[in-house]
Amino acid sequence: MIDKGKISAFQLAVMMIPTVVATAILVLPSVAAKYAGRDLWCSPILACVTGLFIVYVSYKLFQFYPGQNLIQYSERIISRIPGKLLGLILIFSYFINDGIIVREYGEFIMGAFLNKTPMQVVTFSMVFISALAVRSGIEVLARCALIFVPIAMIILFFIFLLLIPDFDPHNMFPMFEYGLKPSLLGAVPTLTWYSEYIDLVILIPFVARQDRGKIMKWSSISVLIVMMSMVITNIVALFLLGKLTADESYPVMMGARYVSLADFLEHLEALAMAFWVLGMFIKISVVYYVLVIMIADWLKLADYRPLVFTVGFLIALNSKWVAPNAEQLNAMLSSSLVFFYITLQLIVPSVLYLVACIRNRRAKPQEPGEQRTPRARAPEQG
């Protein structure tokens, strides 16, 4: 294996929380509100089925091909040349995805705080810090997640608690005025965030052998935590802004500016930024790590570390090219990019799993922590 580090199923689940939530809580309320209106809180609940399904598919594929990731076993499932081509397509899709994530980070930091700082300074500095973490290996990324995720979640819910006096629950009513259709429409762009659980097809092989039986359990719990975080964020945005939620690019940041406690504790934008930067560091680092592992496996390299800084430089450049401005980037997240993510992060692994099931229909899937007992050889006849 390219990286000899090992993590637990619990660490894997913790890593995936900011990988999904970090950008979702910033942009999702606005995106979902455009389709679901006041029923936007229901969209993450409906869409979480996608996350659970991807977790199931990722785990089952690993059961069929223990110790391998998607780049490796795709060649066994659909043969060598189509598998190589699919791996190349997925690598390019991750370049695009990484560029979008870094661009979202840069647009938010510049728009909310450092509006006179060049975009390249903001994006290249974060990519460089993430590159140092990626070069350190999967174990360092997991430990960073264990440290930063609880701190970030505490900061977020502290801000939400301070916003309670400004809540207007009447913004939620009437619920389901137009039936379930608006919530289902809002669930379509929402599921693109859940589709990021496809990172598991690369990360699962790094789970320690004795802990692989817990992957489904902890990954499913991770999906449910992500779902609850999205629901709470959407409700907070709805209670604060009502119908204006769809018009705000960053409803959570707008909410942080609402905080006013006894004319003493006010304007907690900096606290919100601290929470978000911690989450984005984990998200960028994890997706960055997945990308370099995919490239190294596709090229059949013995070590991924020589690729890290080169790939990081290309990611930072690509973040400038993915969209001309923040408005078009946000429009893409709720339109064309939805089909991009659904195709490559949901349909492709589902088709691979279906083909793997057909090819292995006579073989019972092996538990990742188990080893097959070798069949006894028949005695040779003289």
TrEMBL record:
Pfam families: Spore_permease. It is a multi-pass membrane protein. Its main location: membrane. It is found in: Membrane. InterPro entries: Spore_GerAB (IPR004761). Signal peptide: none annotated. Keywords: Germination, Membrane, Transmembrane, Transmembrane helix, Transport. The chain crosses the membrane at residues 12-32, 44-62, 83-101, 121-138, 145-164, 184-208, 220-241, 270-292, 304-323, 335-356. The keyword Transport applies. Belongs to the amino acid-polyamine-organocation (APC) superfamily. Spore germination protein (SGP) (TC 2.A.3.9) family. PANTHER family: SPORE GERMINATION PROTEIN A2. This is Spore germination protein YndE. It comes from Paenibacillus konkukensis.
